[in-house]
Prior knowledge:
Elements: E1 3-12, E2 28-40, E3 43-50, H1 59-72, H2 88-95, H3 106-126, H4 130-138, E4 146-152, H5 162-174, E5 179-183, H6 189-200, E6 208-212, H7 219-229, E7 236-238, H8 246-252, E8 260-262, H9 269-278, E9 287-288, H10 297-310, H11 325-334, E10 339-341, E11 362-364, H12 377-387
Parallel strand pairs: 4-5, 4-10, 5-6, 6-7, 7-8, 8-9
Antiparallel strand pairs: 1-2, 2-3, 4-11
Helix pairs in contact: 1-3, 2-3, 4-11, 5-6, 7-8, 9-10
The protein binds magnesium ion.
Domain Mandelate racemase/muconate lactonizing enzyme C-terminal: 162-259
Protein name: L-alanine-DL-glutamate epimerase-like enolase superfamily enzyme
Amino acid sequence: MRIVDIREVTRPISSPIRNAYIDFSKMTLSLVAVVTDVIRDGKPVVGYGFNSNGRYGQGSLIRERFRPRILEAAPDSLLDESGNNLDPHQVWACMMSNEKPGGHGERSVAVGTVDMAIWDAVAKIEGKPLYQLLAERYGNGTPKREVFVYAAGGYYWPGQDLQALKNEMQGYLDRGYKVVKKKIGGGSLADDLKRIEAVLSILPAGCKLAVDANGRFDLKTAVEYAKVLSQYDLFWYEEAGDPLDYALQAELANHYQGPMATGENLFSMQDARNLIRYGGMRADRDWLQFDCALSYGLVEYLRTLDMLKEHGWSPSRCIPHGGHQMSLAIAAGLGLGGNESYPDLFQPFGGFPDGVQVKDSIVTLPELPGIGFEGKADLYAEMKALGEA
Ligand SMILES: [Mg+2]
């Protein structure tokens, strides 16, 4: 078998919203189709991937470096031992040939996007859901199809008042979520507290609020917020300072006893390891949000999970950023703690297969071959236009 073509296109996922750092009015992503010559159900198997929100499309890197490396490689060098399927680790090594270590930036997004499509193709060729394949190859053999999800929203947007914020959050509760998240750091501390209290005022018992500063704060501000936020029983306090400022994160742990979360902007196993080594994160309560679609894909994420194990961390402390089905499959296959979800944003790429309902903040993944994109009609329509034209 061989890869016949790799197609990519940049798609808009713009929204009139902002967090403490960026607005999403010009946000894009790369959509990739890996076309193989393997026939299933009468047509070639095509694997699909895309990068999650926040880092823009990566078309030029894919076109100039990663696509040609794969297509120019000897086809057999990309296969597993059976010779009947791709080996994602071999494909990854091929993409990363002639790449220096360190400097993990946009290329980790480009590689992660192609890597997602490779895994989708591999599971489709085996005729099973990716979560099943992952549980068999790297997990305990039995996937857990029920996955915790929380609703990420509470962005800053034009004309938003406290009532509109409450209405937004009520909408998530009405759709079955028990944990909701809102942004902080995009206004003054006093304004943020009014917004937090407005949300808390509508949360029923058993529901929780998480807050996310998107890396906005210096140490002084992060600690000021920590002291005030300590009065609430929050689900977590996310990404207070710059993602690479491990000393800030470690110091913050001295001022905040509740759960902290971070990691969505760490794009390699090495960066994740530095967080674990130097960031003061606590394996008994804190949360890790590394997103494979932004950080060299699942091949690298497997290395990150191994690293976490060596440092005494359970995969159940990982709740990835991004709201895509790839991380849902990893969560179900390898026992992560759950996945982010954006009920009203970044469509059609985010979300769940059609018909999947959130109940008590849990979704149950259907049994679809691959990652499951074919089960989401609006998303699959875009994919099919690229991969099966
Ligand atoms: Mg975040």
